[in-house]
Amino acid sequence: MKYEKLRQAVYEANVGIVKAGLVVLTWGNASGVDRTAEDGGEGGVMGIKPSGVEYEKLTPADIVIVSLATGKVVDGAGRPSSDTPTHWHLYRSFPSVGGVVHTHSLYATSFAQAQRDLPCLGTTHADHFYGTVPVTRAMTAEEIATEYELNTGKVIVETFREKKIDAAQIPAVLVASHGPFAWGTDVMKAMENAIVLESVARMQLQSYQLNAGVKAIPAALLDKHYLRKHGANAYYGQKK
After folding, report:
1. Separation between Cα atoms, residue 161 and residue 124, nearest integer Å
2. How far apart are CA 89 and CA 103, in angstroms?
3. I need a labelling partner for 52 at 20 to 30 A (CA). Which of 27, 41, 78, 123 fits?
4. Catalytic one among 62, 117, 127, 186?
């Protein structure tokens, strides 16, 4: 099977987000990239779940391969996810991203629908996201009517650039009135970040219910928890 390693990883992440409870019916997708693949054109290829296929019936061979240069299918019998242009634009805009996950998970989607940012209220959030996970602006009628999925990606990138957010430090976003996207250095890390995003969104909602005036944690505590795992002198976990 061509692109076997990429297809297997993307398949496992798609199955993983279902097992993690982030997906209802077919409301979600995961993708990964191989930026070294020469036959996909400049920039390599991405693999993504086919559109509308039930997860119980999904196999690695079903994963559709798309050129990062053109956004066109280069291998695979099915149609790629309808969200493919969003994933494609994120890969093109954020070179450090190796995997993207989109779901309609309950709590993160609730914040997206409320058009609320997800500020860092505690250390669980700080261990994974270096500050507020932003919500995008609402899309215009023209953006929705023309190339909607591609414009979704463009609005995400616009949000990060205008707010000067490092996509490697905040590997997630809430698309207004839509839902969450998460990413990582590879597709399994993107899946992990999607799981964490849903968990901290649930914690946030319950924190607001207990204390409506709760504030973001102090910068010193945010720095301590994020940098001990991700900083130049990180010491969390075992040495590789």
Report:
1. 25
2. 17
3. 41
4. 127
Name beta bridge partners: 99: 32, 184
Residue of 74, 72, 27, 33 lying closest to 52 (CA atoms): 27
136/176 Cα distance (integer angstroms): 5
| pLDDT tier at 238, thresholds 50, 70, 90 | low
List, for residues 73-82, the tens digit of each pLDDT value.
998 888 999 9
Residue 186 annotated to the active site: no
Give the closest residue to 183 by CA, choosing from 199, 201, 197, 162: 197
| Domains of the chain, each with CATH number or no CATH | 4-230 (3.40.225.10)
Could you give the dihedral angle defined by the CA atoms of residues 194, 197, 198 and 201, in that order, rounded to the nearest 10 degrees?
A: -170
Q: How far is CA 158 from each of CA 26, 135, 139, 228, rounded to the nearest angstrom?
A: 28, 11, 11, 29
Catalytic site residue from 166, 208, 223, 236? 236
Residue 236 a catalytic site member: yes
